[in-house]
Each structure stands twice: as structure tokens, then as C-alpha cells.
Write a structure and sequence with these properties.
The structure holds 2 protein chains of 2 kinds. Chain A is about 70% helix and about 0% strand. Chain A has 9 helices and 2 strands. By secondary structure, chain B is an alpha+beta fold. Chain B has one domain: 2-Layer Sandwich (Alpha-Beta Plaits). Chain B has 7 helices and 9 strands. The chains are: A mainly alpha, B alpha+beta.
Chain lengths: ~300, ~220
Amino acid sequence: MIQTRPYEFMVSYTPQTQWIEKGGIKLWLAFFFIELGAGMFFVASLLDNLWAMSIGWLLCAVLGGGFHLLYLGKPLRFWRMAFSSGWKTSWISRGIIFVSLFLGLGFIHILLMQSGIRSTGLIVAADIFAFLTVIYGGFAMNYVNGIPLWNTALLPILYVVSGLWGGAEVTLGISLGSGGIVAGKAVEEWIRILLIGYLLLVPVYLMSVRYTSSTGQVSVKYMLQGQWSVLFWVGVVVLGMIIPAVAVINSIVTDIETISMTFLYSAILSGLIGDLAMRYLILRCGVYGPLIPSSTYA
Amino acid sequence: MRWGMLINLVKCVGCYSCVVKCEQEHFLPPDVLFSRLLISETGEYPRALKHVYPVLCNHCKEAKCVDACPTRATQKRDDGIVWVDANRCVGCRYCIMACPYQVRTYYDEEKEYYPGQGLTEFEKLGKKLHPYQTGTVVKCNFCMDRVDSGIKRGLKPGIDRDATPACVITCPAKARYFGDLDDPDSEISMLTRKWRPVQLHPEHGTEPSVFYVIG
């Protein structure tokens, strides 16, 4: 844990705590499940996989929404976030609107699909809001210009890629589990593209932050060399990147049908743990620069 | 009209009067501070220097917290004072994250100044006068109650004690000045032109209303 002694608060680099410590940990899980669920719904809807869509919807509504509500200091007032004029400027307010519309439209679409009715307009609208749900967390964090680790245009892109990738992984697991080899192969194409994007984005994101400012440099140092380095190298790199990459290469070299299901499910789980670790580190290693610039000392 | 504050660091002696007076004025619960002193050291003995920076909400002209608030609980008045309507706050703490100066506090639980010994008379009175709601964000409001009631009584903030923020009137070194930054004839405007003070982190584009004179 990054320790800040009381007399160091905002005098030296100060880590943000509200969105990761104590009750703040719920927000980490909330963002993960909201984006994973919406990403899953998005990918599954393109493959007409009702099971995966329903599970994605549930992940988003129950776990994502639930953790969001539990995090709030005044959860019974949550409706104010959608019914105020806050959406004009606040990404949190916009996010609540996106999530609500996605859940509403997605629920109707799932009900209609179960009855054998397919509405293209409805699914397009639901998918648009699912995509916006995946992306809003990145924009909400990107707005915080006091934390250079978050204040980069690459963060929303990273969140979209990881949200869709995680969603595609779980969809693949469900497709193969229910015997849908054809659908599984289609999702596999998605996973390959998204994994390549993720593998490229993580180092580019960290490098761009590293060279933005001294505060960004400190954040990246905490992540790669400091007390969080084990979580980064084991969680993000080994579990989140290398193991899924080995599974993808294996599926290209051989065939998805011939890969051991145990290995495949392990790789999916490993990828999800890696995504969780990355999100944790982004929240945990977000630091504010010293409030008092040394050049202004009296 | 835009209320602002000028803090002359050359005069500041780091006595914590502003911090204590602020706590008293607003009946702040334990662990909640609207006004702080940031103290740092540079150099090494025998050339070590101690630096004291009193900090409070900057009441930014382009306040990031106002735009971040999803419920419009954080508002900016026409006179530039940024305040939090506790009845609207949902406790999402996005404003705390958005503030690059970290001068907001999340009031998460009620505490006693003397744990296990019950509330003091001061705390009991504070609960009646300033019933802070747990699960909401609190911050400095430039003593807007004092300013508003003073103006109603025909007093002038920055000149008359009863219409001026508590930290300004209590400063024994007279290091703080308060007034209308938009009025070119106000004391604070004249001193700002004369002393050429700095704002904290102007690169964030927030245009703080608190200025510092640095020797």
C-alpha cells in the first residue's frame, strides 16, 4: 500500500484513496462488472447468443449496479444522478443514463427474443447504449486532470478494448459450453483482434503517461517497480496477457475444437483476472502531484 | 462580483489560527478540515527551510468539481462561491477526484472528539447549527453565511469583521485579505496588482480565486 504520512498530504505525491480504499473498493468492482456485462451483451447480441446476452445483462445490472449503489454515500438518492441537469457536464451522470437505457432496452430485447421476436431497431439502440456503458468509465476518469495516469485519451480506449475483450471471452466460454462451436469460432475472431489491441495498448498507455509529467512518471513507477509491481507483472502481464495470448496462438496453430476445454476456460479466467488487476492498478496508482510547486516556495 | 482571497506567505507565521478558527466557526467534526496548513521542508541542516502553505477551497472560476457533480449538489453562485448542497449530494466523491487541489472531504461517519466519552457541549451545539450529513462531501464555502448576513446588514465583506470569512479576521499576522476581485478599487484587487501573487497550479485552467504572495 502507498503510505502517505499526514504531513506529506499534497506536499509530496499523494495517491487518490476515495475510489479504491475502504468503501472505494466497491467502485473498482462496479466499473469492472458494468463494463464486462455491457461488453458481453454487445458481443453476444452480434452473435444472437441469448444466454450470453442475458448473463451480460445480469452482470451489469446486479453486480455492476449493485456495487455502484453500495459505494454511494446516499444510495437512496441515486436517481438524482439521472434526473438532474448534471448530464450536461458530468460523466458520472451520463454514465447512469447510458446504463439505465442499456438495461431497459436490453431487457426488452431479451424478452422479445425469448418470444421469438427480433427487432433490429431495438437491438441497435441497445448495442449503442451498451457500447456507451463500456466507454463512460474511461471518460469519467479521463476528466480528472489532477491525476495524469487517468488524464489521457488512451484510457477510455483501453477500457473499451478490455471491456469488449472480457465480454468476448465469457461469451466464448458460454458458446463452447453450450456446444456452439460455430458461434465460438466467430467470437474467437473478436478475441484475437481485441487481444492484439490490448497487448499494444497497455505498453503504449503506460509509456505515454510515463513521459507526460513527473507525476505520471511516479504513477507508472509505483505500478512497474514499486510495491504494486508483483501485481502488475504477475496479474496483468502473465495472467492477463501471456496466458490468453498462448491460448489464442494455440487456437490459430491448431483448432479451437482440439484445445483442451480446461486450458481454454483457465485462459478465459486468467484474462479476466488480468483485466481486474489492471483496473485495480489504474485506480491504486493514480496520484496527484504536489500541491505546492517547489518554484513557489516563500 | 467574484469573492477572492489573498494570502501573503511572507507574513504567515504558520500558527494554525486559521485552521482552528475554521473548525470552531463551522463546528467541524473530527477528521474534517476546510482549511489546512501544508508544511514542508527543503534543504538540509544547517540550510534547512520550513515552508508553510495555508490551503483552502480555491473557489475556482472554472471549477472542475462543479462540472463533475452528477446531481448539481456542488454549485457556483454568481459571486463565485462554490458550495455543496448536502441535501442533493449522493456521496459519489467524483468532485473529490476532480479537484486537483484535494480540498474536499468525504464525511463518512460521525465521530466524537473524545471517543467513548460522549459529545461535548461544543459538539452538541454544532449538531444543531451545522447538521452535517454522513455520506456526503463537505468543503470550505468562504463562510458564505457570514458574508451573506453581513451584506444584508449593510456591511462590506473584507472590511467589516462580521461580513468577512473567519480565517481572515482571526489571522494574527494579518496575512489574509478578502474582497471582490472584480472591483478594481477593492483592497484585494489593488494588492493583487501591487504584489503580483500566484495561483496554485494554473496549468489546470481552473482559475483559482485564492492567490498567494510568495516573497
